[in-house]
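Each lists chain and fold; for instance:
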Amino acid sequence: MTHEQAVYLELLARGAATEAYDRPALLARASGAGPEELAQLEQAKQLALRVRAELESRRRREAELSALFETANDLAGLRDLDDVLRAIVQRARSLLGTEVAYLSLHDPVRGDTYMRVTEGSVSARFQQVRLGMGEGLGGLVAQTARPYVTDDYFHDARFQHTESIDSAVGDEGLVAILGVPLTLGSQVIGVLFAADRRARVFEREQVALLGSFAAHAAVAIDTANLLAETRSALAELERANDIIREHSGVIERASEVHDRLTELVLRGGGVHDVAAAVSEVLGGSVEFTEEPARPGRITEGHATRDGDDWIAAVSAGGESFGALVLRGSPDVDPVDLRTLERAALVTSLLLLARRSAGEAEQRVRGELLDDLLDAPDRDRRLLRERAARLRSDGDGPHVVLAARIDRAGAGAEPEAGGRESADRQRLRSAASHLAATRHGLASARDGGTVLLLPLGPGESAAELARQTARHLGAALHEPVTVGASAPLDAPLVHPDRVAPAYDEARRCLDALRLLHRQGEGAAAEDLGFLGLLLADTRDIEGFVDRTIGQVVAYDRRRGTDLVRTMDAYFACGMSPARTKDDLHVHVNTVAQRIERIGRLLGADWQTPARALEIQLALRLHALAEAVIR
C-alpha cells in the first residue's frame, strides 16, 4: 500500500468531510511534488470519494430501511383507524424531512379523494380540499396509481390545475410536492404526500422510500378497516344475540303465562287471578276493570295504547265485559302484547263460564224457592237435599223479602215492556247474587223479586230489609224498595209457612210505596199500627212495647204515673189545663210529666201520626192490663 492510499484510507476511517480529501494533494504540491505524484494522489482521491459516497449511500439506505421497519412495526400495533392515519402522516414527514405531509382517501360514493389527515399544515382551506380524479397532483396519482413529483407545483403543466385546488395549495404555500398511491391490489384507496414550501428535488431513492412506506401504510389502513368492520360485526352479533336472548325470554314468559292461565282455568281461578298472573310474568301492573271503554278506544282482539297504558278488551260476541289494562308500560315487546291479548281472551272465557254457572245456579235457586212458595207439600227430604247442594241452610231463622225497582214512584205509569223486562232481569240478577253470597234463595215473581235470606246473629227482619234495599239499590244504581216478613223458623222444616210470609212481605212493600217511602226497606214492625194490620203474626205486645214501652218501663221502675197522664192528656184534647183537672194535680205537675214523656218517646211524640200510634198502643196496653187483672 502506498503512502497516498494510506492517507485516504485514514480519512475514510474517521469519516472526514469531503473538503478534507483535497488536503493531501495541496500539501504535496506545496512540498514540490512532481506531476506523476500529483496524478497518483488525484487518482487516489477520486477513488476514496467514490468509496465515501457509497458508504454514505449505504448508511442512509440502512437508516431508511431501519426507519421503515420501525414504522411498519408501529403501524402493526395500532388498531384505531384515526391513530393509524395520524401515525402514517407523522412518520412520512419525519422520514423525508419535509415541512408538510398529508394523506387523502378515496370516496367511493362521490368518486373523488378528500383530505383526511395533515401534519404541519396551517391552512384551513387546504385541510378541507377535495380532489377529483385527474385534478391536481393528487388526483393524477389517484387516477393513474403511479407516484408523481413536482419541483415547482404552480409551473408544472403535467396535471390539471383547478382554482379550488391551486387556491388551497397557495394558502398553504407549498412548492415541491411528492405524491405516492396507497394501493390494495389494483385498487387505489388514497394518496400519501410529502411537500416543502421551497423548491426541492426529491431523489429517486426518496420516491421509492415513500412508495415502500405507502405500501405498508395501505396494509395498515386495510387492517384497521378490517378490525373496525370486525368490531362492528361483533357488535352487531352481540346486539343480535341480545335480541335473541330477549326474544327467548319473551317466548319463555309467554309459555309461562300459557301454563299459568291453563292452571288458573282448571282450578277455577277468577279474573283478578288472571290479572295477577300476567302482572307477575310481564313485570308490570295489570288490572281488570269493568269500566266500559270509550267508543274507538279499544279494538276487540287487539291491545291498544292509551298514553303510557295498554288496553286489551275483554269481550265476547260483541258484548263488552271490561278490559285488562297494563299500567305505565309504553314500550312493550310485541310478544308481550300478544300475551296480554291472550289473557284478555281467557278472562272473557272465564266471565262467560261464570255467567253460565251463575245463570244455572240462579235457575236452581229460583226453582227451589218457587217450589217452597207454590208446592210446599213436596218431599221435604228432597227439598233439604236441593238446598244443601246450593249451600243453603234452611234450618235457622229466615226472612222472606219482596223487592221491586221504584224508579218512577208510587202511582206512576208502568214502564214500557222492554224497559220493564230489562229492569226485572237486572233486579233478579242482583238478588240472585246477594242470595248466593248469603246462602239464601231468590226468584223472580209478581213483577219483582222474592228472596229467602237467613238472619244473622242479633239481626232483625227490619235491619235485613234495610240492608237488602241498600245493597240492591247500589248494585242497580236505582231505588229498590224491600218489604220483609216476620222471622220464619226453619223454612225447610215448615215449607207451608213460606207462602204466607211472602204475602206479608208484599203487603209491607205495598205499604212502603203508599207511604211514599220508595227505595227503603222495612218490616211490619217499622210501620207502627199499620204493621199490625199487615203482619200475619198480629204482634200486639211487640207493637205496644215498640210504641210506649219506655214509658211503661219508667213507671214500673220509678212508681210514676206517666202512662195514665198520657191517656188523660189525649182524652182532654192535649190540653194541660184540662188534664190537671182530670188528674187532680197541679198544672206544673202535668207540664213536668209531659216533658219527661217527650224525653222518653222523642220530641215528635205529639205529631198526628205518632199520636195516633201512641193512643192505639195505650188502648191495647189497657186491655192487656185488664186481662191480666
The two ends are 179 Å apart (CA to CA). Residues 132 and 589 are 129 Å apart (CA to CA). The chain has 20 helices and 16 strands.
